[in-house]
């Protein structure tokens, strides 16, 4: 029996992203990724719902990565994408997955969340980041302190939006 699930290359992901995913042990798309990637790669808006562990993060993450400029491609270090998550734990997992998928292109991903000192997060923001993954409270705090610049954000993801609304 052959696997009929498409590869990320077949769905239109860049060779660099395909290589990064392969290094993570991911070669074929889950159902939600097969559905979401063509829409996201065209720049379309989407809403997705699937059980835990079925690949939602890369369903939005791969199209997100494909639209960003890494530092080597002309990115200026200000966030180009914002992923809002309800919890620190989810933020850390999403950031890890996106960092892995963007590794071969040098995409920088920063998780921002409360319960820790501001200074290291502010220093990391100033050092440059392409994707910001954050909880609402810490994002608002940093914005009020004028430490967070979102004027270059071209893509917004509300991960587990139902939990935040």
User: How many helices?
Assistant: 7
Question: Would you identify the regions where 5 or more consecutive residues have pLDDT less than 50?
Answer: none
Class per helix and strand makeup: alpha/beta
Tell me the total number of β-strands. Answer: 4
> How many structural domains does the protein architecture include?
1
Walk me through the structure.
- It is built from 7 helices and 4 strands.
- It has 165 residues and is of the alpha/beta class.
- Strands 2-3-1-4 form a 4-stranded parallel β-sheet, with helices on both faces.
- The radius of gyration is 16 Å and the shape is globular.
Care to give the gist of this entry?
The protein is an alpha/beta fold. It has one domain: Rossmann fold.
């Amino acid at each position: 029996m052959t696997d009929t699930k498409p590869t990320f290359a077949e769905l239109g992901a860049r060779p660099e992203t395909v290589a990064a995913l392969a290094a993570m042990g991911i070669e074929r798309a889950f159902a939600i990724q097969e559905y979401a990637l063509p829409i996201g790669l065209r720049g379309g808006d989407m809403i997705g719902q699937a059980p835990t562990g079925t690949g939602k993060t890369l369903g939005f993450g791969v199209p997100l990565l494909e639209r960003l400029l890494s530092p080597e491609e002309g990115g200026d270090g200000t966030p180009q994408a914002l992923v809002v998550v309800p919890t620190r734990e989810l933020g850390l997992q999403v950031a890890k997955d996106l960092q892995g998928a963007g590794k071969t292109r040098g995409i920088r991903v920063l998780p921002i969340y409360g319960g820790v000192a501001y200074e290291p997060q502010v220093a990391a923001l100033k050092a440059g980041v392409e994707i910001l993954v954050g909880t609402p409270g810490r994002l608002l705090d940093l914005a009020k302190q004028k430490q967070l610049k979102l004027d270059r954000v071209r893509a917004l993801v509300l991960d587990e939006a139902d939990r935040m609304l």
